[in-house]
Design a protein that fits this description.
The chain is α/β, with parallel strands linked by helices and 537 residues long. The chain contains 22 helices and 20 strands. α4 packs parallel to α7, α5 crosses α7 and α16 crosses α17.
């Protein structure tokens, strides 16, 4: 191994006197790729943020020695240097890719402006040069139409595109150490390979080291040199990737490796004459776009995100929708929820969406949604009781306060969150829970109005493998017990295999293949489906 770039000794992090990271010792060598893995709440993200002192209200102790390049190898302790000096290191020598790009990116500026700002401040580039370099960085991350995307605001990009913009921003100054907190979480399987190849190429070219925080063990196998396993703020095992995966010594490491999603769904056939929960024919979604030159003064163009989609969801069945980022699958989900204008025929429980809110009120009780990012989809200003019980004010206003509270408690118990395990549960706020627990809150909020169909938009993509497996088991149990139907949007082939009865494959807004899940994934006929399945292997 080459000389140490980062040497951490006895790192401890505490909040309000309660220690959450307990005396960690580890090293990252120059040019080395180290993976830090563990369950949600294990302390891995807090560990990475603490190295740059980005954790608010935390008591941090220990030593984090950051070495200058050869020949001097002068050392600076990241935990004790002045804030002014550390500010010069952040973004220039040590960069970070954050897990949740929607909250990390500024919604008031285009992504190109935000990347260019880093280049201007850290490298002193002129404005025009910085803007051109920002476009090139977006192109390097594989984002389509980089010049147009550079002029887009974060909310105008898909989840995967926002994540790639974050990666471009982090790599702008060619840092010596990259702290990557779930850098491929929101990306589909084919683009994960592109990002890994990009990081590997830059790491080899610039001698950059990477500390990768991830729950994706396939990613660790493919990318990292060494792996560090964390549980409850402790390092329980570390070593070369091949050695740890071939012969894990700790029981927790073995549990992580064995956490692949398991199929446990009812395989009962569809009743021929039963009315479907949702049915679509010729569904089309388009967005107006500006036209260049004088034409844009008089008319607007159109970008078609979904072309003539057709599908049926039977009672108690799951329809999986899989495709790359930007393929139109989330747009399809929003249309099925009546949240986007569309053309064609779409019926929920035999009824069509209307422009009249009063008419749609009954349908919104039939179909509910669980979003990809539970942190941004749950209001930080509401308590658990207010979040989960909010739908009852609309759909069951006749209930008394005591009756609403009992419904909320039952819904929380049903998703595995009880007051016995979490004292004061109803008065807590979302930030007091881990990612997996927040997703359970989101599921409870959807279930409380007793819907027939849940639209699941990447419900486990932000969760580590063990929590992902638990949430999928929860969804499978709820489907068996309640007879729920699911429209499952995901880029994870393993999740589709575990959950779906039927699957449709989308590319560039078109359904290129559909059918029974085993038939489509085991013997795909379209080249794009073959690529997806092969990339997930």
């Amino acid at each position: 191994m080459s000389h140490a770039l980062l040497d951490v000794k006895n790192l401890r992090v505490a909040f309000g006197g309660k220690e959450v990271v307990h005396g960690l010792d580890f090293q990252v060598a120059a040019g080395e790729k180290v993976a830090l893995v563990g369950e949600s709440g294990s302390g891995k993200t807090v560990t990475a943020l603490s190295l740059l002192r980005l954790v608010q209200n935390a008591d941090i102790s220990g030593v984090a020695s950051f070495f200058e390049p050869r020949p001097s190898l002068n050392v600076r302790d990241l935990l004790s240097i002045q804030e002014r000096e550390l500010r010069g290191i952040r973004g220039r020598d040590i960069a970070m890719i954050f897990q949740e790009p929607m909250t990390a990116l500024n919604p008031l500026f285009t992504v190109g402006e935000q990347i260019a700002e880093v280049l201007e401040l850290k490298l002193g580039l002129a404005r025009a040069q910085a803007v051109a370099q920002a476009v090139q960085l977006l192109a390097d991350t594989g984002i389509p139409e980089p010049e147009r995307r550079a002029k887009s605001f974060p909310h105008q990009l898909s989840g995967g595109q926002r994540q790639r913009a974050m990666i471009a921003m982090a790599l702008a100054c060619q840092p010596r150490l990259l702290l990557a907190d779930e850098p491929t979480t929101a990306l589909d399987v084919t683009l994960r390979g592109q990002i890994l190849d990009l990081l590997t190429g830059l790491q080899q070219k610039n001698g950059m080291a990477v500390l990768l925080i991830t729950h994706d063990l396939n990613l660790v196998r493919r990318f990292a040199d060494r792996v560090i396993v964390m549980e409850n703020g402790h390092i329980v095992e570390q070593g070369r990737v091949a050695e740890v995966f071939a012969n894990p010594q700790h029981s927790y490491t073995r549990r992580l490796i064995d956490s692949k999603p398991v199929r446990d769904v009812q395989e009962a056939p569809v009743v021929a004459d039963a009315a479907p929960v949702m049915q679509a024919r010729g569904l089309r979604v388009g967005y107006p776009t500006p036209l260049p030159g004088l034409r844009g003064w008089f008319r607007r163009g159109e970008f078609v995100a979904v072309h003539d989609a057709a599908f049926t969801i039977a009672s108690g069945r799951t329809l999986g929708v899989i495709g790359e980022s930007g393929s139109g699958k989330s747009t399809l989900a929003l249309a099925t929820l009546g949240l986007l204008p569309f053309t064609g025929d779409l019926r929920v429980d035999g009824q069509a969406w209307s422009r009249e809110p009063a008419h749609n009120k009954a349908l919104r009780r039939v179909v509910q949604v669980v979003f990809q990012d539970p942190f941004s989809s749950l209001s930080p200003r509401l308590t658990v009781e207010e979040i989960v019980g909010e739908g009852l004010f609309v759909h069951a206003p006749e209930l008394s306060k005591a009756e609403r509270r009992q419904r909320v408690l039952r819904a929380l118990e049903e998703v595995g969150l009880g007051e016995a395990q979490y004292p004061g549960l109803l008065q807590r706020y979302p930030h007091e829970f881990s990612g997996g627990q927040r997703q359970r809150l989101a599921i409870a909020r959807a279930l409380i109005v007793e819907p027939r169909l849940l639209v699941l938009d990447e419900p486990t993509s932000a969760l580590d493998v063990t929590i992902q497996k638990q949430v999928l088991q929860l969804l499978q149990r709820l489907q068996r017990e309640r007879g729920l139907s699911y429209l499952l949007i995901t880029h994870d082939v393993d999740v589709i295999r575990a959950m779906a009865h039927e699957v449709i494959v989308m590319k560039d807004g078109l359904i290129v293949e559909s059918g029974d899940v085993s038939a489509v994934l085991d013997a795909p006929s379209h080249p794009y489906t073959c690529t997806l399945v092969r990339s997930a292997a």
